[in-house]
Amino acid sequence: MSDRLISMLEGAQRPRILVVGDLILDRYLWGDVDRISPEAPIPLLRVDAEEHRLGGAGSVVAMLAALEAEVALASLLSDDGQSPRVRALLEGLGVANDHLPVAPGRRTTVKERFLGRAQSRHAQQMIRVDYEEAGPINAELENAIVTLVERELARADLVLVSDYKKGVCSEEVLRRTIAAAHAAGVRVVADPLRGGDYRRYAGCACITPNRLEAGLALGTTIETPAEGLAAAERLLEFGLDSVVVTLDRDGMAWADRSGARGLFPVRPRQVYDITGAGDMVLSLIGFSLASGAEFPEAIELANIGGGLEVERLGVVPLERRELIDELRAPLEGRRAKVIALDRLQAELARRRAAGQQIAMTNGCFDLLHPGHIASLRAARQEGDCLVVGLNSDASVKLLKGPQRPIVNEAGRAEMLAALEFVDYVVLFDERDVTRLVRDVKPDVLVKSASYTKEQVVGREIEAYGGRVVLVPFDPTYSTTQLIAQIQESRPTAAASERP
Predict the structure, then answer these.
(1) Residues 333/351, Cβ–Cβ less than 8 Å
(2) Which residues are identified as catalytic?
(3) What CA–CA distance (Å, rounded) separates 120 from 117?
(4) Most C-beta atoms within 10 A of its C-beta, which of 116, 236, 279, 422?
């Protein structure tokens, strides 16, 4: 199945997808927290950065654009001071918005998140402030939205509904949108609202509630994958062709009116921020179905994309290449972690854009031993991913002499890549790691406490705000000592010749 998904993503097709739903503006304020406010017992955030992203149906649009789909939008704009920013973000994605109806006097929904950096290795959300008007829209605006839908359906391969209960996806708009899509032979996939009567989505090819949303719709709780599958089966009774219930750490459950059923486990992830995971699932299921995939394939890709999304801060679109790399990783095994510098820099740029902190350590790692394992595990705890700079064979010879290394660079790289807590291995030929540290620019450089900070090569990262961290080491283990012990234990030539 992975091979088929890779072929689909590598293909040149650009499915045209119509997104219907509520536009939201996400605002992120970043800063340092180093003391408590003198006015109240609360953290004092010193804001030093601000960023705006599209949320709600806008995040689905951004995700589809990153996947190189052709995106059309049927939504509603406000006439307040935030509307120009929303328009500019849409234009930056190449999505037309001049045809969108404007609701006079209606404010843009804004979700403002304050993120503080303190002693922890990455920013954490402190509080979210919402500004919104979620009341119903009038019949004139409903007609304008449906007119847009009917116009775009002639060219659409699929319709995605992103219902955030902010007014656009009224029962009237949904009913007429689904009816028009049926008449045009176009499937509709919806991410439903939390709570409410799911009969409003009757006629959809699929809905994608999470376990909480599905439980609220059915008046129950969903704890296990089996309960998720049972919920998907019950939700079919609301007039739906197919249901995917997302179960976070337990993957996804799928039931289809044809009788098909399935549970799809997900690879364990470090959950950093769940924002955008549901939008990613909707986007990837829609993109896959519009590209010709069947539901099991679409769910597999959505499982992977949702997992990647929760490892990132806020709503961060994924490109096809990232999904292809993730699909290939199990096929390529440990070799996928051993990476050239230029590709590593691209990977780290994506992680930084997602708010992740990069930890790095380095060494020869000849004859991997428990001391190495403990240091590497401690290094990984200092960041969201760990880069290991590995001395090449030529570099090891410069440091250790002509008899080293015992294990060649390919073997040493493979051993490091086999460790779960190592994310990337990159080789370097120089005698020391100075240039590689300068190229990688880690947030944290980790070395054994057998060194002092003044002895750490690459400590110059502190000049741009990076940290040098020394982790405990176990003096019981040393590669040099192990080699000496092996040599001492070898039988003498005379002894080896005895019969």
Answers:
(1) no
(2) 279
(3) 7
(4) 279
